[in-house]
Amino acid sequence: MDVKQLRALLAIAETGSVTRAAELLHIVQPAVSRQLRLLEEDIGTPLFERGRRGMDLTEAGHILANRARRALHELDQAKADIAPAPGIVSGTVTIGLLPSTGDLLAAALVSHLRQQYPQLTVNISVGYAGYLQQWLEDGAVDLALLYDPKPSALLEVQALLDETLYLVGLPEKNLSITGDMALHDVAELPLVLPSQPHGLRLLLDRACASADIHLNVVAETNAMNIQKNLVFGGVGYTILPGVAVFDDVAAGRLTATAISQPALRRKIVLALPLTRRSSIAVRCAVTELRALIKQKLQQGEWPGATWLVE
Q1: Cβ 237 vs Cβ 191: under 8 Å
Q2: Fewest CB within a 10 Å sphere: which of 229, 230, 247, 277?
Q3: d(Cα 122, Cα 94) in Å, to the nearest integer?
Q4: Mind listing the pLDDT tens digit for each residue in 155-205?
């Protein structure tokens, strides 16, 4: 087992594909396949289940990936701490982004950080809020965006924005981005929703329980892209924040309308671990991420969101 094999494991886990992992790592596909094969031989058990929809981690794969993520982060940080260049922001910073925000923020954030701090290495980890919170507490990521997490003595959080949740459907459903639909009407529609314990699903379930409303859930998935693909396939409607469907609505591929009575909104917070001191690199990344999110709101690229920072 070596560092290259562990990086290949995490790249495949994040992309669901050996081909896309090779592109992410900037190496040829056979090299990634070989690294995975050697790692599975060393471990003595399969680390992925290979299906038509891609590659999913097995239980053993999940265990190894979680440990590998922490180990590689510690190695990268150690290299930065041993011989930092005086007066230059260097080292490695690992940033956790939510699936609904990754497409909007990742490329711009990395570009801005590389322009400002050429000596800085930026890692982006994408995961649902529960995973990101665990990675923060375990030391696998340095900072992350979360959905209004449960109070934790291990985290420092700052609320950044409040965002509306939208009912999303195909164009012929004639949903209006400027209109709204009551939750009890939404509940009668066939819905494709995240599975529990996804934060959005928990929010929906709490709102429905308070109003004695029962949702008509026809499919569940823990992947946002599959949520949207099932809508594209005509299976039903889904519920997502505006940032997750901004491009699709603008291009006419989907339509959306806000949910009301009660209005469904959620907070996005920036979280940092309290168990370790934030490096200069982390503090620089925090500043850039906050500024980028505010900029996206001002440019109208985050519909239904309100900036909360004074």
Answers
A1: yes
A2: 277
A3: 6
A4: 888 999 999 999 999 998 889 888 899 999 999 999 999 887 677 888 898
Domain containing residue 42: 1-83
Residue in 218, 217, 238, 216 with CA at minimum distance from that of residue 227: 238
* CATH value at residue 36: 1.10.10.10
pLDDT tens for residues 76-93?
666 655 544 545 788 889
State how far the Cα of 66 lies from the Cα of 127, in Å rounded to an integer.
Answer: 12
Other beta carbons within 10 angstroms of residue 19's beta carbon come to: 12
The structural domain count of the chain equals 2
Q: What type of residue sits at position 18?
A: V
**Distance between CA 282 and CA 9 in Å, rounded?**
25
In a domain, 292, yes or no: no
The residue from 83, 117, 138 where one domain ends is: 83
Q: Given a cut of 60, is residue 206 above it in pLDDT?
A: yes
Taking a C-beta distance cutoff of 8 angstroms, is the pair 183, 260 a contact? yes
